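Work Package 3 (structural annotation) set out to generate three-dimensional models for the target panel prioritized at the project kickoff. During this period the team completed the workflow that converts sequence records into discrete structure tokens, so that structures can be stored uniformly alongside our sequence database. As a representative example, we reproduce one entry of 346 residues exactly as it appears in the project archive.
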Amino acid sequence: MHFLWPEFLWLMAALPLLVLLYVWLMRRKKKMALRYASLSIVKEAMGAGQTIRRHIPPFLFLLALAAMLLAAARPVAVVTLPSNQQTIILAMDVSGSMRATDVQPNRLVAAQNAAKSFLAELPRHVKVGIVAFAGSAQVAQLPTVNREDLVTAIDRFQLQRATATGNAIVISLATLFPDAGIDLQSLQSGRERQRGFSIDGEKKEKKDFTPVAPGSYASAAIIMLTDGQRTTGVDPLEAAKMAADRGVRVYTVGIGTVDGETIGFEGWSMRVRLDEETLKAIANKTSAEYYYAGTAADLKKVYETLSSRLTVEKKETEVSALMALAAAALALLSAGLSLLWFNRIL
């Protein structure tokens, strides 16, 4: 915790003086009580409980003053608040290796089930879009709050050959920023164009673009799940830089074999290996995180973690109002107890 106006904290030095003043007043009253014929009669009348009670209201009032002074110094603390996240893009690998059964019942079905559970956990106001990628990347569902449409899009996945992780990030960015003129074709050919094409083929003018700090765009995020290495398409690190320059976090989820394995199906066989190094680099470049899921249960936990992470956020917030509220509550409690026990205020 830190304070925007720390100079007000010097007023806290007055609190010990108030304590000394209170002790002096109590001793003065004690001396006046000695005028009675017997002090034991006074003590017996008051009792131990009464002696303790008489100090509680002043103590609460002292705490109220301390809270008021802290509020005046404008404290700032890191607190957990509902996230401003409005749109999440799920970029999901639908390459042929997702048929592998090392994650039960197979990688694709486990990924589909985990994604559906993720959708069920998200607040209803958060829009979600689906991008499916293999040798190319396509928008399976534009961002929407309709969970039924999203589930239908996930159930429609068709497995294809190759893996273009970079294309998945670029298409996800084009979906988040449809008017930004993000041109996948120019990235693939390595040529800069003055005019680009949006994901629906409509020509868009490229607008002036100023990079921002990685992870600073709080209104959207991308979650990319894959089980293999990039075999075609845009360099994923180049695509990650595009996301970082726009402040968009790309959370990466790896599923399947890390060391490499030959997977066979329908008479075909292929050698696949999870490229954790690249996935970690993508997450690091965009100020996000990488997660590995070796089983269906692990994958579900990953999505549960992402759901909680993306729906709440920790950030520095001024908490002067909370301190002022606490001060008011303590002052009222102090006055109330004094009236109840002694029929006077302090």
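The longest strand covers residues 75-82.
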